[in-house]
Fold each of these.
Amino acid sequence: MDVKELYEKLDSLMGSTVVLEGWIKNHRKQKEFGFIDFSDGTCFSHVQLVYDNKLDTFEEIAKYRVGSAIRVEGVVIESVGSGQKFEVQVKDIKLMGDCPEDYPMQPKRHSNEFLREQAYLRPRVNLFQAVFRVRSVAAMAIHTYFQSRGYVYVHTPLITANDGEGAGEMFQLTTLDLNRIAKSGSVDYEKDFFGKKVGLTVTGQLEAETFALAFKKAYTFGPTFRAENSNTKTHASEFWMIEPEIAFCDLEGLMNIEEDMLKYIVKYVLDNCKEEMEFFDKFIEKGLLDKLNKLITSKFTRITHAEVIDILRKAPVKWEFEPKQGEDISKEHEKYITEYFNGPVFITNWPKDIKAFYMKLNSDNKTVAAVDLEVPGAGELMGGSQREEDYDKLVNRMKELNMSFEGLDWYINLRKFGGCVHSGFGMGFERLLIYLTGVENIRDVIPYARTPKNCNY
Amino acid sequence: MDVKELYEKLDSLMGSTVVLEGWIKNHRKQKEFGFIDFSDGTCFSHVQLVYDNKLDTFEEIAKYRVGSAIRVEGVVIESVGSGQKFEVQVKDIKLMGDCPEDYPMQPKRHSNEFLREQAYLRPRVNLFQAVFRVRSVAAMAIHTYFQSRGYVYVHTPLITANDGEGAGEMFQLTTLDLNRIAKSGSVDYEKDFFGKKVGLTVTGQLEAETFALAFKKAYTFGPTFRAENSNTKTHASEFWMIEPEIAFCDLEGLMNIEEDMLKYIVKYVLDNCKEEMEFFDKFIEKGLLDKLNKLITSKFTRITHAEVIDILRKAPVKWEFEPKQGEDISKEHEKYITEYFNGPVFITNWPKDIKAFYMKLNSDNKTVAAVDLEVPGAGELMGGSQREEDYDKLVNRMKELNMSFEGLDWYINLRKFGGCVHSGFGMGFERLLIYLTGVENIRDVIPYARTPKNCNY
C-alpha cells in the first residue's frame, strides 16, 4: 500500500494490518522501543513506525540505517505521542536495500549548493520532494487546462534549421567528427546528418502557429534551449516552455486566456499540493499562500508600456536605469510596477524595435500588439502578442530587420493561405515554478539543470 | 463559438443565431444557393453553411475561395439535404483572410508524400486533423493515467554527457565554431559550452530511476534522439518516449502496469476521439476498431523467450532468419507470435547478451528479467525490465561489457543507498500512435519529422 492511500483511508484502516514499502528517513532507538521516520515518497507526509523489544527481530531492526529500503508489516494505531494522528506498530520489518553510514542524505539541514552536487539523491529530501511533486502537478494542471478547453497539444520539433525568433544563441547539432574536421581543415555540411547546419530550437512558436491555423487552439509544452553564457539564478540552458497559439484571438482575448490559465494553475496546485505548499509558505517564502490565494481572486491590471514609463518617471525613486519612452524596462522597473499595482500587471503595446519581427504592428506604426505579464517576485512570467497576420507588413518588417527569408517561407505563407487574426504567448515553466514555490534559483526547480560548464548526470 | 460546442449543444441551439470562425474547406455555388463546407478545427466534423441570393452579399460570398478564413453569422436549422443533422443558414459572412487559387490543400485526394512536403499545411486536411488530435488526446491519456495513480512526472535532461544505455548513436552538441576548428587544426572541449563533449540523450531511464527511488513511482514523457542513418517507416531521429520507473515492483508487477496502462490509453482515445477513430477504421486500417476493442477486454499472453523460440522452431514456416535459443528474434518472428496468440504478447526472460547492462540477471545466470510487449501490426511496443538492484552484480556486468564507469557512478550508487527491487519500461509514443491509428509511416504521426537529410520547418 502507498502511504498516500494510507492517509486517504486512515479512518477505515485504524486497527488493520498494512504492508508498506519505502525508506528510513530517521531512526531513534531506545532500550525498549525504536522509532522510525518512514516515507515512501508517494506523499509529503511521513509515517512513524514504532517497534518494541517484544519482537524477536528487535536487535536486528535497531541496526537498520537511515536511507535503507524496508518492507514493513504493522498495525495502524492511534498515536500515543504528541502531534501525530496515528502510527504503525511494527509486526515485522524486512530489509530490502541497505544503506551505509556515509549516506550523504542524513537527517539534518543541507545547503542547496551541497544538494545540487548530490542532484541524484536530493529528490529524497523534503524540499525537493515538495519542489518536484509541485513541478509534476503543475505540468498536469497545464495539460488539463488546455485539453479541457479543446486545445491540441503539439510536439514542435527540437532539432531545427531555423533560429526561431532570433531569441537567443543556439546550440549546434552535428554527427561530424570534430577531430576529423580539425585534421582535414574543412567542414562539409553535406556530410552532416541532415545535410546542413542545424541546431536546437529556441522556441516552438512558429510551428505552433501552423497548428493554430488548422485546429484554432493549440499549445506546446516541451524543452527549449539557449546557449547563452549567463550564470544567473534565472537562466538555464535547457528549460521547458508552454506556448499556446490561438486563431481568431486578439490581444484582449489573449490576456483573458493568460489570466484565466494562471489562476487555474495556481488553484490546481494549491488544491492538489496542500502539504507541499504549506511547507514552502513556512520555510521558503513567508506569505506565499497569501500571495497565491490573492492572485486567484484579483483582477490583473492592464496598462500600456507608455503609461508604465509615465508612472516610472513620476516615481520618487532614484533609478539605476532611467525609464524612457520607446525603450525597454529593466528588472527594477518591473519590480516597482508590480508593487505599485500590488499584483500581476499586463503591459501592452511595446515599442516595435525592442520586440520580435512577427508581432502585429499597431496603427501608430511605432508600437506592436505585444503583452508581457509581470508578477510580484518573479518578474516577467509570460510574453505574448497578436501575430502580424498581414503578409505585406510581415515581409516589410523582415526586410527592415535584414532578416533572411530562407527556411521561413512557410511561416510567411501562413499569412497567404487563410491567415487570420491570431495570438499566442510563451511561459517559461521554471519561471512559473519559482513563482509557485518561492524557490529562488532555477537550478533548484529542474531535476538536472544544465548551465554553462555544468552538465552532470 | 467553437464548432465542437455547437455539436455538443446542438439540440438547444436549433433555431438560434450563432457566430463561427474558421475556414472554407469546400465551396459549391449554384445560381440561387451556395454551400460552404466549413471547419474551425475544434472537432473532426464540419458544418454546412448555406447562403442564398436574397443576401445583399451573395455575389461577394460566392467569390470566397477554398482555404479562406471567414467569420459567419447564421441560424442553426434542420438540414433539408440528406445525411446531415443540421446546417447553418448564413445571415452574414466576413472574410478574415483570403486564400489564392493556387492554395495547395484543394479538396481532393493528396498523396502522403505530397502532404509531407507541405507539412505546415497538412494539419488542415482530414487525415492529419485526425492524426494530430489523436496524438494530443493520447498524450493526455498517458498523463492522466500516471498522475491519477500518484506517479511523479519528471523532466529528465536532454543534454547529457553520458550515452544512456548505449542504445543508439548520439547527436553531438556544441557551441564551438566548426570552421574555426578546421582552421586551427584542433578541438578544445574545455572551450565548449559545457567544458566537455556532450550530446542529446537516447533515454531518460537512468535519471528516471533516481526519481523512482525517491517518489516510488515516476514517469518521463519527453523527446529522445537517435542519430541513426536508417530510412525506414518506423525510425525517426527525434521522437517522444514514455519511461515509467517503479520502486518495489518486480517483472510481474511491471507487466501488470504495462497491460493496464495500454488498455487505459486505448479506451481513453476510443472514448474521446470517436469520429477520428471511425475515420481511421474506414479509410486507413479496416478492422482497427475491432482490434482495439478486443484489446481492452483481452488478457495479454505472457511467455518466456525460450518458449517463443520453441514455438517458432516448430512452426510450419520457412524463416528468413532461423530462430535459435539464446538469440534475438526478428520482425517476421514477432509477427508470427502475435498472430499465433491472436493478440498482444509479453515475452520475458531474454538472453542477457542481447539486452542492456542494467537488466536484472536471473538465477540461471544466462537470462535477464526483461520483457518486450509485442502487439499485432506494430511489433514491439514496449520494452522493459526489472533493474539490477545488486551493486556487485551491476558492477560485474559493466566490467564484463568493458563499460566505462565515468559519469555513471551516481547510477551505480543508487544500488548502495537504499536500492531496492525496481522496474521500468519504455514506450515509443509514435509506435503507439501507429498502433492506434493504423497510419504506417512514422513521418505521418509526427508534426515535423526529422530523418536523415531531412530537417525542414
Amino acid sequence: MDKKIREDLIDVAMGRADADLVIRNVNVIDVYSQSIFNTDVYIKDGMIASFKSGGKALKEIDAEGMYMAPGLIDAHCHIESSHLSPPEYSNAVVPMGTTTVIADPHEICNVTGLDGFEYMLRASENIPLSVFLMFPSCVPATPFEHSGATLLAEDAEKYIRDERVLGLGEMMNYPGVVNKDKEVMAKLALKEKWNKHIDGHAPSVSGSGLDGYISSGINTDHECETPEELREKVSKGMYVMLREGTACKNVLPLLPGVDEKNARRILFCTDDRQPGSIRDEGALNYGVTLAIRNGLDPILAITMATLNASECYHLEDRGAISPGKRADFLLLKDIKNGIYPEKVFIKGELVAEGQKISTRAKGYDSGKVTGRMNVKDFSRQKLSYKVPSDHVRIIGITPGGVVTSKKEGYIKREKDGEWVHDKEKDVLKLAVIERHHGTGNASTALIEGYGMKHGAVATTIAHDSHNIIVIGDNDDDMMFAVEKLIDIGGGITMFKDGKELMTHTLEIAGLMTNDTADEVAKTLEKMHEIAYSELGVSRAIDPFMTLSFMALPVIPSYKLTDVGLFDVDTFSFVENAL
Amino acid sequence: MDKKIREDLIDVAMGRADADLVIRNVNVIDVYSQSIFNTDVYIKDGMIASFKSGGKALKEIDAEGMYMAPGLIDAHCHIESSHLSPPEYSNAVVPMGTTTVIADPHEICNVTGLDGFEYMLRASENIPLSVFLMFPSCVPATPFEHSGATLLAEDAEKYIRDERVLGLGEMMNYPGVVNKDKEVMAKLALKEKWNKHIDGHAPSVSGSGLDGYISSGINTDHECETPEELREKVSKGMYVMLREGTACKNVLPLLPGVDEKNARRILFCTDDRQPGSIRDEGALNYGVTLAIRNGLDPILAITMATLNASECYHLEDRGAISPGKRADFLLLKDIKNGIYPEKVFIKGELVAEGQKISTRAKGYDSGKVTGRMNVKDFSRQKLSYKVPSDHVRIIGITPGGVVTSKKEGYIKREKDGEWVHDKEKDVLKLAVIERHHGTGNASTALIEGYGMKHGAVATTIAHDSHNIIVIGDNDDDMMFAVEKLIDIGGGITMFKDGKELMTHTLEIAGLMTNDTADEVAKTLEKMHEIAYSELGVSRAIDPFMTLSFMALPVIPSYKLTDVGLFDVDTFSFVENAL
C-alpha cells in the first residue's frame, strides 16, 4: 500500500473524503469469525476503506442484501492447460469468481525456458486477474526425455525475487529431495535466501518419507487422493489443496477428511481446467460448490478458498473483506447451493456480471514464444516400428486415468520386422518426435485401448516435455499430422486418408492460443466429436488429453519419450520386443 | 534453515543418519488438526526431523505418554516490566513454558534511545529464550513530557531490517494515525518497505475510527476489554491478544468472546508481568491455564498460544510439532487443568525441569545503559508546591486501575502559599523530576488515595518517560529519596524520618537489574511489606506500580509529567490552583 492510498483510506474511514464507491446493504461473509454481518462497504483507490462510515461516495450500488465474499484464490494452477493465453484465461475465470491465481508455468517453461517464464510474467501483468507465479522447480520433469529447456537454481534466482513470484513451483522430484540431489538442494535453499515458498507434489507419500520431504521446507500438496493422506499431511504441517480439475478430481474423495478443526490448513485449487469445464461448471468456484453441495459449511468453504490461501502464501492484501484489503469481491444471491457470482469486482471495479466478463483483459503479444518448433530431418522413416520378435511390449491405456498398464502381445510383421496394423485388434502405433533442439530424436511403441479405427491424431501438448506425440494406424496419416504441426508451430490435428479433418492451432509454444475461451471450447468440442465419430476413438477416453499424458515418464507404468519406451516402475528404458 | 541442517533432517527422516535425540511415546498436541497422536519424535540439530522413523538416536528419553506441546509464544511483552535483564527474564519464563517472546523495548528506549534498543537486541541474542523485538513506535509516548529520547522513522529504519526485529511496536498514537501525522505515516510506510509488521494498541476504539486505524496496516491489538470489542476487531481483520499481566488482566473478561470459529485470530500475551507473578502463577502459561480452567478447550488454548502467534508474526520455523520446525517443546503430564510443564526443551536441549531452570542464560554486560541519570540542580527547592489559592486540583487514585479521577479540595497553606500536609487527610505531594537531559525540570501536584502516613517513596520507573517520580508527606524524605536514586543510577527507594528503609537498585537504565527473578521477587515482597506496614500505604494498591503510572499522560484523567499537571481528557496542561 503506498503512502497516498494509506492516507486516502484513513480519510474515507474518518469521513473526511468521499469514497469512490459504496456498496450498500451487503451481507459480508466474515472469514475471520465464520459469520455474516450486514453493512455498507466503502471503497477507495481499489481498496476497502471502511464499513458504515457515514461518509459519502461518488457512486453507490445497492446490493439488496446480497452476500459479499472475498474474491476466490486458486492456490495452484497451470494456465497453459486451459490452452488460453493469460489474458484470455483471466476473461474465462474472473466471471466465475476467481480473482487471484497462483500459477506454475512449468508447461511453457519446458518448451521455451526462461522466455516462457518472462512471457507468462508479462502477459499476466496488467489484466484484471491477479496472477502470481511460482518458478518451475522441475524442468525437465525427468532426465529421460528432451525438453526445450533445463532450469537450474541459478535461473530461478533471476526471477524469484520478483514480488509477483512467490517461490518455487511444485517439487515433483520427490526422490531428488529425499536423496539430497545437489541441484534440488540448491533450489530448496532459495526459500530461506529470498524468504519464499516452495510448493510440493507428493502423491501417496507418507510416513518418514513424507517427514523427510516436509523437513526440507516444502509445505503444500495438491496430490492427495484419500482422507487419510490429507489428514496425515495436515498434521505434519502441510497446507493441503482440494483439487478439482478437468482431469483430476479430488474434492469429493477428500471431503470426508475435512472438518472444522483442520480446515484452516486446507485450500482449493484447480491445477488443470479446460475452457469447456470452466464455461459449463466453473473455475475454482466449481470445487467450492461441489464441497458445499456435499455438506461443507458454505462460510467455511469460502474461507478455505480465500483467507486460507492468503495466509498460506502471505498475500496479506487480500483474502477477506476488511479495511485495508483489496476490493476484490463477489456479490452472490445464494451461498447454500454453490458459488456462482452475480457480480465480480476487482480493485473496486465491476469486471463481470451474470458470469459474463464485462471488462475484458487485453491481449499480449506472444512474440518470442510463438511457434518454437525445431524438428530436424523429420520423415516418414522416423515413424518406423521394426522389431526382431513378434512378441512385444504394449502400452495399455486405462480409461479415466493417466496411469498405463504394462501389456504385451503378438503382432504381425513385414519380412524386415516392420509392424503391420491388425484391424481385428485395438493396437495402434505411437510416436514421439523431439521438437525443441533439432536432435532428430524419434521413437515408436505400440499402444492399446485408444479405439481409433483409421487415421492419426497428433499434438504438441505432451507432458511434460511437450514434444510431438502422434498416434495412428498408418504412417501416412501420422506423417501428415506431424508435418502439419511442424508447419503451424504446434497444436492438435487429425488426419484420415491423407485429409486434414480439423486442426486446433496453439501458436504460443504449441500449448496455448490467443483465441478466446469460448472459441477454444467450441473448437475442442468439435474436435472431440470428429475424433469419436470419424476416427472411432473410444468414448471412454478423452482423445487429446489421454494422448498428452502418454509421454509423461513420472506416472506408471509404460510411457514413451523421444528417447524410447520407458518403464516407470523400474525407472529404466526397455526394448519394444520381448 | 541452512543447507547442512536441511540435509541432516532428511537423512534422519530417511533413516540414513542417527538423530541427536528421540523422545519416545509422547502424545503430540497437533495444533494443525486440533487433535492428539501418539508417536516418537526424532530431533537433529535442534530441529524436529521426523516421527516414528525407525532410525536410531544418540540419546533416548521415554516420555511415558506425556503430552508434547509446542513451546509457548508470548505475542507481546515488555521485558523491562519484570525489572529483569533479558537473560534473567529468560531464566524466569522458560521454566513456565515460554520459549519465544515478541518484546517491545519501549521502556528502555524512552530512557536510552537507540542504546537501549541495541542493548536489548544484544542481551537477548544468545540465550535459551527466543526474543524477537518490535522497534518502539511511540518514543516519547506524548509530546507533553521529556523522555530520554525521540525515535523517528529514520531511527527505526536502522534496525527494522534485522531478522530478529519483526516490525514496529504498539502504535499507541491513535490520533496520530487517524489524523495522518507526518512522522507516524513515515513509520507506517516501513511496513511495506521492509515487509514487516506493525502492532496496534487501540483501547476502546471501534466503528469507523477502528476502520481507519486498521486501514493503515496495523493488525494486532492487546488492549481489548470486552467480548464485543474483541469480536469487532477480529471481524475487521485484527489478531486480538488475550492479555494476562500482573496489572492488566483480560483473559477472563474476554473469554466469552472466543469461540472455535474466531479463535484462529486470537493470541495470548503477558504485556507486563513481574517476577513474583511469574514465580507464583506463571508466565504466558498462566493466561492459557486461566482460559482452560474457565472452559476453553485445552488443545485450542495451546494452539492460540503457539500456531496462531507463529502465523501472525510469520515465525514459520516454530509454533507446532512437525518436521522441519525448531525442537522447542514442553512435556506435560496434564493439559486439562493448566499448562505447567514437567520439562521444557529449546532447540532440542532440556533447559528446565519441574518449572525450574536447568540451563541458565548467561548475563550480559549492560555497559552503556547502566545508570543514565542526568539530573540538573536538584534541590529541596524543586519540591516546592506553592499556589495562589487554597482550592486546588487533586489527582485521585483508583484502586486496581491506572486511570485516575479528577478531584479537588481545600488545603492548608503557609503564608507564601506553600502547601502544608494535613494529617487528617489522605492527600500527599507528588513530584516528577526530569532525569534524562539535565533540563532541571520538576513539577509538583497533590494526590489522594495513596494512604501513606509519613515518609516518601520514589522510583525511576514512571511510564512512559521514566523520569523520577516521588510521593511523600514531607520534603525532606522526598529529597533524600530522590537523591538516593540519583546516586545509585535508578531504582525504587523508601525513606522515613531521613532514614532509608529499603532500596531496590535498577542499574540498567533505572528500569532493570542484573539480579535474578527470585532475588527481585523477594526484594519487592519485602519492600511491599515495608510500604504497607511502616509507611502506611493503602493495601488496596500496589505502592510502586501505582506510583509508576501517575506520570503517564495517555491514560485519564489527571497525570503529572515533568512539565506540570496534565488533564488527559482535554489533552492540556492545567494549573494546580482552581
